[in-house]
Amino acid sequence: MFNVTLGQYYPGRSFLHQVDPRTKLLATLAYSILIFLVKEPKGFYLVGGFALLALVASRIPPLTLIRGLRPILVFLVITVAFNALMTPGETLWGWGPFHVTREGLAFGGLMALRLVLLVLVTSLLTLTTTPIALTDGMERLLRPFQRLGLPTAELALMMTIALRFVPTLFDEAQRILRAQQARGARLRVRGPLAQMQALLPILVPLFVAAFRRADELAVAMEARGYRGGRGRTRMRELRYTWRDGVTALAVAAFAAGVVYLRWFAG
């Protein structure tokens, strides 16, 4: 039921694995912004091609990423249905006050495609970057904000732990679900109120487990003498290589293509 790739690491020595985490973080951020500037079909060919290029460069099996889309399938269906019913236009099907329009289906499909590509590219970031490298990359990128008094090391660690705990919490939810089903809990019921009540036997133990894991992690970090970034040394210092230059050029070309199609193409 829960198969999440976001937050997991897939060991490898591919081109994308060896790119500096700072470059991958900035590239992912740029892609996340540019994908919402795309309006025309040609633009979606461009963003889809860039995602395919990143997949090839990562050498990660496509089925691994496809399985990671299962948890958001319900959200994708809701997105398409909501836009199909709420967007005015040519009616394709109607029942009472509900009308499905051609323009709504098209817009909902494009929004779903954006979300799918966004999840795929974000998953590639965590699949090709170790948690330690991801933390170091975030800390280095946030370092200029230290002058404003921000605890950059703690913020970077917090974001990395949050990403890392996503698959852990989904696995915990799956175990709780199976345990409740073995105890005879009725989880498949009709009606929104009944469904909310049916989720309580899963959500309450899940929140308890999440707080317990957070407390255990805090105790372990304190026992190991973690004090943020003060006086901290690293076994491997981050260095830019030719791979980062190639990645930056590819992102710049992609951004130029999106901008051209968005504002200058006829």
Q: Topology as H/E string?
A: HHHHEEHHHHH
Query: For the terminal residues, how far apart are their CA atoms?
Result: 45 Å
User: Which class of secondary structure composition applies to the elements?
Assistant: mainly alpha
Average residue-wise pLDDT: 83
Number of helices: 9
Can you tell me the overall shape?
flat
Poorly predicted segments: none
Q: Strand order, biggest sheet? A: 1-2
Got a strand count?
2
Strand composition percent: under 5%
Chain-wise SSE layout:
Blueprint: H1 21-34, H2 41-58, H3 62-67, H4 73-86, E1 91-95, E2 98-101, H5 102-127, H6 131-142, H7 152-182, H8 192-223, H9 242-264
Antiparallel strand pairs: 1-2
Helix pairs in contact: 1-5, 1-6, 1-9, 2-5, 2-9, 4-5, 6-7, 7-8
Structure notes:
With 266 residues, the protein is mainly alpha-helical. The protein has one domain. 66% of the residues lie in helices and 3% in strands. It has helices at residues 21-34, 41-58, 62-67, 73-86, 102-127, 131-142, 152-182, 192-223, 242-264, and strands at 91-95, 98-101. The chain has a two-stranded antiparallel ribbon. Strand 1 and strand 2 (98-101) form a beta hairpin. Helix 1 packs across helix 6, helix 1 runs parallel beside helix 9 (242-264) and helix 7 packs across helix 8. The chain starts with 20 loop residues before the first helix and ends with a helix. The mean pLDDT is 83.
